[in-house]
Design brief:
This protein is mainly alpha-helical. It is built from eight helices and four strands, in the order ααααααααββββ. The chain folds into three domains: 200 residues, no CATH class; 74 residues; 79 residues, no CATH class. The strands form two sheets. It has a two-stranded antiparallel sheet. A two-stranded antiparallel ribbon has the order 3-4. 15% of the residues are buried.
């Protein structure tokens, strides 16, 4: 296959691509002149998925609490997982398409394209606003609430646990009183045998009641102090998740912007290389000048050269002048007598380009 046929085949393949596909091809094609393609691969296949998972996890934390009581319990888990993933896919596709449309001027090709990419830009904007609201504001309250729910018990439960021993002793005194018998006999007389036991039990019970009151006061104070500590810790937890989600959103936005700029740079470099290749192919020589010894002298594209030939005989055989040659070093018009040559009537004749140059004696590149 000749050079012209290969060049025509490449051009035909490029024409088969749509303008949009050609832009994407050049934007993602690697180039040895820059490290931008390596950075693009690192950002697109590592940092961007990392930030997307990061933001989706924050969304799951928020929705797993918000959806409780709103939807059936068995639907909470998959909705809390699915909704953030869907929004990340929307952001990835729409943001990538919008940045490409902006950098490669897709929006300027028709009125329909302008409105299509404008609507995609609004979808991208609202998707980022929704996830940013969750990641930066809502997750803070959700994290605080989760921490409080996990570490806080009710006051009744706390007091019950604190006074459990005293309450058990008071209950034992009541059982002891029952076992000792009634204060009076069946005849209505005072049962003096139980009087010492009753008096001792009453004294012990009064002491236990005072002890219980002291324990309740201390336990209530401890409960309030613990709640204050939990509140402070919940604020820290909320602030951590707010920063966690906010940094994830910021990283994701920067990754999309960086991908767009890198694709623009790669597109420019590859288009420049493609244009240079096309110009080079368009000016490639399709033949070489050869002397009678079979040596090849490649043609140069920088400046035109002229080749002069002296006829050896009237039968048309020619002998090229020594190479290289320029305007000031032509063959002598009348060579020595030892060379039976006749000078040309017209030393140089500029020939138009044609496919077959084998029969041309005089030509100019």
């Amino acid at each position: 296959m000749s050079v012209l046929e290969e060049f025509a085949k490449k051009r035909a393949e490029k024409r088969k691509m749509s303008a949009r596909e050609r832009d994407i091809h050049f934007a993602t094609l690697s180039n040895d002149k820059t490290k931008a393609d390596e950075i693009l691969l690192f950002v697109r296949y590592f940092l961007l998925p990392l930030s997307a998972i990061w933001v989706a996890y924050v969304g799951y934390i928020h929705l797993s609490k918000e959806l409780v009581g709103v939807v059936p319990e068995e639907h909470v888990w998959w909705l809390a997982m699915g909704i953030p993933v869907i929004f990340q896919c929307i952001k990835a596709y729409c943001a990538t398409t919008v940045f490409r449309a902006f950098h490669f001027k897709w929006y300027d090709r028709s009125d329909a394209d302008f409105w299509i990419y404008l609507i995609l830009a609004f979808i991208t904007f609202f998707a980022f606003i929704w996830t940013l609201k969750i990641s930066f504001w809502d997750v803070k309250d959700t994290a605080k609430s989760n921490f409080v729910d996990k570490n806080t018990v009710s006051l009744d439960a706390h007091l019950k646990a604190a006074t459990a021993d005293v309450d058990a002793q008071i209950a034992a005194l009541g059982q002891k009183q029952t076992d000792a018998g009634s204060v009076r006999t069946k005849n209505g007389k005072v049962n003096w045998a139980t009087q010492p036991i009753i008096a001792q039990n009453a004294k012990t019970e009064a002491a236990l009641i005072d002890q219980r009151a002291t324990i309740v006061g201390a336990a209530t104070k401890e409960f309030n102090n613990k709640n204050q500590r939990i509140e402070v810790q919940s604020q820290k937890s909320g602030g951590f998740f707010q920063r966690f989600g906010g940094f994830g959103e910021l990283l994701e936005i920067l990754c999309f912007i960086l991908c767009g700029l890198l694709e623009k740079k790669m597109h420019q470099l590859n288009c420049q290389d493609e244009d240079g290749e096309d110009r080079g192919n368009a000016t490639l020589p399709h033949f070489n000048a050869k002397n009678i010894n079979g040596q090849t002298h490649p043609l140069h594209n920088k400046a035109p050269q002229r080749f002069y030939f002296n006829r050896e005989s009237i039968d048309g055989n020619v002998m090229p002048a020594p190479f290289p040659i320029d305007e000031l070093s032509r063959q002598p018009l009348f060579p020595p007598d030892t060379e039976n040559t006749v000078s040309q009537f017209q030393p140089t004749v500029s020939q138009h380009y044609c496919a077959d140059l084998t029969n041309q004696a005089d030509w100019v590149l």
